[in-house]
Amino acid sequence: MTKKSKPHVPAVTAVPEFSISARHSKALALTADQAPTRRTLLLGAATAAGAAALAASPKKARAIAPPGAVEYPVPADPTLVPGRPPGLNGGYGTRSQFETEVREWSGSGTSSRTPLASSEGTITPSALHFERHHNGIPEINPEEHALLVHGMVKRPLTFSMADLKRLPSTSRVAFIECAGNSAGEYHAARGKELHNMHGLVSSSEWTGVALSTVLREAGLKPGAAWILAEGRDASMLSRSIPVEKALDDAILAYAQNGEALRPEQGYPLRLLLPGWEGVTNVKWLHRLDVSDAPFQTREETSHYTDLNIITGKAKQFTFIMAAKSLILFPHPEAKLEGPGFYEITGLAWSGRGRIKRVEVTTDGGKSWHLAELQDPVLPKAQTRFRFPWVWDGEPAMLQSRATDETGYVQPSIRQLKEVRGDAERGNVNYHNNAIQTWRVNPGGTIENVHFSGHP
User: How confident is the model at residue 123 (pLDDT cuts 50, 70, 90)?
Assistant: First the structure.
């Protein structure tokens, strides 16, 4: 009996079987400063096979090939060389070796930040979505993962991942922002890099099961008011969530941007609470305990509370991330090449709903002008804004100010401090949504400053 041969799947380093002519082979060997001629293109038949392998075979990423990319030879003229066939990357796409954006790790090793300066549109690539962990990233087999729903419910239930995926699904775009985003900028303007100052915010499309669906299956008992959401990481991070939010727009998310969650984003299951502070969006979710009162966990008592220096009291629960906007270009890592036209652009978001308008000033608040909002403008999602500006070469103070559909207006840093007070340290700097100021100097350099001279 003749055995059936298995279909051949090329390995990442395999050379595919496709022909390349001597003309194409020689063109590949040319450097960028060697203009191909008819004579040189007709030479080199003896090196055709070697050049074909060079053109097709990827190399492991080195210094010139950033994470997520593979280094390939670059011909002087790609129209003269057959391109590589699909499949060399193993079947999962890689980005161009010329794109270098990466998340920047914090010094503590507990977070990484989205490179906002290079962002386009409103969706953050999954690979660049910010991270915040409390005891590392767990490795979890989804076939062994389950969600327990118990406490003040009529029918305690356990759901496997397969069970959850059998339920009706829903998708929505939503931002997630860490309560500590921009915290370092509250007391003074310290940062020099955009991602270090404000990179703990990202936006994605999330897919999963409405939490209300699961709670209806379990049946809430009378008096049920709070839910403990607990993660399956080594810290077993947990937060108390009001039932009202759980029944409103909460999602048990298992997918992000069209594919399964990344491990650093909670694979295989996370809680998504659109518009609420990042720590409540519990990752690696494995338990929901329903009760009639909050559970007073570590992350809602000693951490993530808002201290008011003026009153001497602390607000325990500040769930909603208030309206905020940020100019992403120009920014301190950029330099304007000279007077002329520039497009000021950035992002705005609000945990209360849609962004209604964004205003931009180039004179520190003496005059404000409406920016254009790019569609779609979605609730509890980031919105891109744009404003045309002709720089005259003189000093300028750039700011943006967001207003959401509830009428809430993004405050200046002075307005925030008038309510909260100021301190070098302490929880006073959580939930900092103050207007950010970039000072443009005559030479085109840009600085991060605190400025509230024209409210």
Answer: very high
